[in-house]
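Technical annex, item 7. During the second reporting period the consortium partners agreed on a shared format for inverse folding records so that results from different sites could be compared directly. Each record opens with the tokenized structure and is followed by the designed sequence. A conforming record, contributed by the partner at site C, is shown below for reference.
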């Protein structure tokens, strides 16, 4: 105890003693002890205090091994950052930076410029002015992008800037809730715009939008059905029809894309998930999307589109309240640079998306054979089965990637107990439990984590 006092100080030790004693009192009151086990507990008090102290002084936010195969797992922090992004965050954060300072002129600058130039390379150069710009507005040809805290903030800012006091037309089939309280009707009311619902849950036609347009209409909104599908007797207007309608009535058309890939998903066999470029090329004026979903960067909300409309958002005072800090800009800039250089494998999310079943299978075989050679007579049974990884994070709800899973069962432990043991590891290993087995998908495990996995599985054997 004396050592602890000297090392950690009186108040930290006293606080830990209080916590341990309170716990002990509660356990005694609830009748958990007989005489012998109480003696044992009292004898272990000083160790318990030390444990408590260590826990209270260590991080609560920890890195975990994601063996679920869900690439964008919101509960596990969505996209892991690229190494280059971490380097750039470190270099920018531990010193002063030119965040809002023009080094050339010595005058105040704008924080957007650091990433707007890259978005513009990735988007403007590829959209082509014909599809995008009304002939009368050639000057607005360039696509601007601004960054806010997350996509929910992006939708809020866009609606408030473009439609405050007026109406926004949305299909009833798109009034979605995205996990954890992001609901389109609620965001709409916070933005001071009025929701004008059209169509029905399963069918909305272009004529429904057309009939709803009045002098109060400020915006047509389309929301990507990120986390569900409507199948069966359904109808949704083609994008071209919406674009044509918006242009003929001189109204902006916005799309909340959610995941917002800057990478052609068709190259990994996912055909039904539109990317940011698809939407802009189709003629949508404003697209909102997340930084930490398929883009593979930090948490952020991106608003890309017609420069005049984005300009209205930039000068809205809400933008100041929703802006992001230098760490986010640094991580985003480095991530976007990987795209500009076409170095897609530098972005972990893209690397995981592109992993073939064969590559995963080879690693799985290596892990299993190492566990088996460490523990030849094992209580842990390891098998291979075919399975599917999912993208998650509200992208392509029905798209799956074929994978090879390690299925675990244990002689003495149920699947839930086994998965609890894996979670109790340091670092915790999070896996899926299905049909009485624990399933490990290496798609979302970093190759350098395979040795930890081998060690942990061997210890369970
Ligand atoms: C994920 C998602 C959001 C919320 O994005 P955050 O970055 O988590 O705020 C909003 N709309 C759609 C369609 C989404 O998929």
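Designed sequence (site C submission):
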């Amino acid at each position: 105890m004396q050592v602890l006092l000297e090392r950690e100080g009186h108040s930290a030790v006293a606080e830990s003693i209080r916590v341990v004693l309170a716990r002990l009192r509660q356990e005694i009151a609830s009748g958990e002890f007989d005489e012998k086990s109480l003696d044992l507990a009292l004898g272990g008090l000083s160790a318990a205090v030390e444990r408590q102290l260590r826990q209270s002084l260590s991080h609560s936010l920890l890195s975990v091994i994601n063996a679920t195969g869900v690439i964008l797992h919101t509960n596990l922090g969505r996209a892991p950052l690229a190494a280059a992004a971490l380097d750039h965050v470190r270099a920018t954060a531990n010193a002063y930076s030119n965040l809002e300072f023009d080094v050339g002129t010595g005058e105040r600058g704008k924080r957007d410029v650091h990433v707007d130039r890259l978005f513009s390379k990735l988007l403007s150069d590829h959209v082509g002015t014909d599809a995008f710009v009304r002939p009368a507005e050639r000057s607005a040809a360039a696509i601007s992008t601004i960054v806010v805290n997350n996509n929910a903030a992006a939708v809020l800012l866009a609606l408030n800037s473009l439609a405050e006091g007026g109406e926004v037309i949305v299909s009833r089939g798109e009034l979605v809730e995205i996990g954890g309280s992001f609901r389109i009707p609620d965001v709409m009311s916070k933005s001071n715009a009025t929701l004008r619902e059209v169509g029905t849950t399963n069918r909305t036609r272009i004529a429904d939008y057309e009939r709803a347009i009045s002098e109060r209409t400020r915006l047509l909104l389309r929301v990507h059905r990120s986390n569900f599908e409507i199948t069966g007797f359904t109808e949704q207007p083609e994008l071209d029809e919406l674009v044509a309608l918006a242009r003929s009535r001189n109204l902006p058309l916005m799309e909340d894309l959610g995941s917002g890939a800057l990478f052609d998903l068709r190259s990994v066999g996912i055909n039904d998930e539109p990317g940011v470029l698809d939407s802009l090329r189709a003629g949508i004026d404003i697209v909102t999307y997340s930084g930490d979903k398929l883009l593979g960067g930090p948490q952020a909300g991106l608003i890309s589109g017609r420069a005049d409309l984005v300009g209205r958002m930039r000068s809205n005072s809400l933008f100041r309240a929703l802006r992001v800090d230098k760490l986010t800009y640094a991580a985003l800039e480095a991530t976007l640079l990987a795209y500009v250089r076409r170095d897609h494998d530098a972005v972990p999310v893209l690397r995981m998306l592109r992993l073939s079943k064969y590559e995963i299978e080879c690693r799985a075989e290596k892990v299993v054979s190492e566990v088996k050679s460490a523990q030849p007579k094992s209580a842990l049974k390891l098998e291979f089965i075919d399975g599917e990884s999912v993208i998650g994070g509200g992208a392509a709800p029905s798209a799956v990637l074929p994978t090879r899973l390690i299925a675990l069962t244990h002689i003495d432990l149920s699947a839930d107990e086994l998965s609890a043991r894996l979670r109790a590891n340091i670092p915790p290993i999070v896996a899926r439990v299905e049909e009485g087995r624990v399933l490990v998908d290496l798609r979302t495990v970093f190759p350098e984590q395979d040795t930890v996995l081998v060690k942990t599985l061997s210890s369970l054997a």
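The radius of gyration is 27 Å. The longest strand covers residues 380-392. All partners now use this format for quarterly exchanges.
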